[in-house]
Amino acid sequence: MTAAAADPMVPVPFRIHKIRRELPDTVTMEIAPCSPAPFTFAAGQFNMLTAFGVGEIPISISGDPGDGTKVVHTTRAVGAVSRALDRLTVGQVVGVRGPFGTPWPVEDAFGHDLMLVAGGVGLAPLRPALYHALAERRRFSRVIVLYGARTPKDMLFRREIERWRGRFDLDVDVTVDRADPSWQGNVGVVTKLISRARFDPYATMAFVCGPEIMMRHVATALAGHGIAEDRIHLSMERNMKCGCGLCGHCQWGPHFVCKDGPVFRYDRIRPLLSIREI
Amino acid sequence: MVAQHDLGPVIDDHPFFRGIDGKLRALLVGCAANERFDAGAFLTREGEPANKFYLIRAGQVAVEIDAPGRRPIIIETLGEGDVTGWSWIVEPYRSTFDVRATSLVRVISFDGKCLRGKMDTDPALGYEVMQRFVRMMAHRLAGARLQLLDLYGPHPGAGRREREA
């Protein structure tokens, strides 16, 4: 049982132990239960975080699933709750319900190439999958990370990306939408990186996370490069409230995104992606 | 240095012309040359006559536009396996952007006037080349439109994850 699982509707107090500002509007906070209790999660799951007195929002877990000492979240301050979370300081308390949702099927990729494609802060929900893959690196063939950001200054986890690029057992390629000549890297959409990546399309599992428009184009490109649709997974978002499939706010066709997702197999949701009314 | 008569296999290996009919490829070779550009050199300059296009064999180029009073803005980068330059095929045959080598770049260049002449007299070659350029241009246009959307920005058009990760 996890610290927050006794009653899925009751937030459990977690104290903030560390805060790192990633970008002007984005912070990563490390939290741990106020009363010692284990918290386990799988890569791709999310928590409902409460800023007391303001509200509650779903936030993907961005830390290492193998590290049971802390829970890590990365939030971007643009809504009332996320702005309140952004203002919190070390020692303050947040409410946590979770973990909820379906994980990235990392272990299904054992023996194959694993490709992670992220856009913007979509790298945060994918980072736990990479930590998991790196912890079991020998079980994969190639591990590839393709990341698209708005500008070089908007790259999330930049120092960590630089460390990943230095590894011989990891292929990392980055592109930005806009740059000046001081940027020596790629400029263009993240789909361009797919055609340059070296992978075996018949033995590759791909995880994609970012804005939905980006994910649609990436999934189409991956399928166009020969990766079977049932081996492409997307992390979807809808208006999640309860987090456990009770309230129906996040209903998406026959699915509740909070319970049946957020990670979905592309072949199962591709028809829904083109229905504009839902 | 690769002699012109040896460029056929190089053109065959490049993704842009991969699979092209041998007779058409032989016509291409007659307009092709092997070139290299040092980092910082310009392959094309905005407004100048567009006499060439390039198959990039190695290195990276930046397609960019000069902005008065500030540093040039990079629109996209292209690398090995890409092609740069389509103004040679579109009147008035003038380059619309700068293309600058950001590293040592090795290319196969094609003389646009030479190739236009061959395409005019050989419709099969003209159709083949146009098909490949239109496919590439459509792909680039789709990418440019996605870039214009500013998908990763914190605005309402972005996904909620973009607002609250």
Please summarize what this structure is.
With 278 residues, chain A is α/β, with parallel strands linked by helices.
Molecular structure report:
The complex is a heterodimer of chains A (278) and B (165). Chain A is built from seven helices and 15 strands. In chain A, a hairpin with a 3-residue loop joins strand 3 (46-51) and strand 4 (55-60). The model of chain A has no long low-confidence stretch (mean pLDDT 93). By secondary structure, chain A is an alpha/beta fold. Helices cover 22% and strands 31% of the residues of chain A. The radius of gyration of chain A is 18 Å and the shape is globular. With 165 residues, chain B is of the alpha+beta class. Chain B has a single domain, classed as Jelly Rolls (Sandwich). Chain B contains five helices and eight strands. In chain B, the strands form two sheets. A four-stranded antiparallel beta sheet of chain B has the order 1-8-3-6. Chain B has a four-stranded antiparallel beta sheet with strand order 2-7-4-5, with no helix packed on it. In chain B, helix 1 (7-13) packs across helix 2 (22-29) and helix 3 (112-121) packs across helix 4 (123-148). The model of chain B is unreliable at 156-163 (pLDDT under 50). Chains A and B meet through strand 4, strand 5, strand 10, helix 4 and helix 5 of A and strand 5, helix 4 and helix 5 of B.
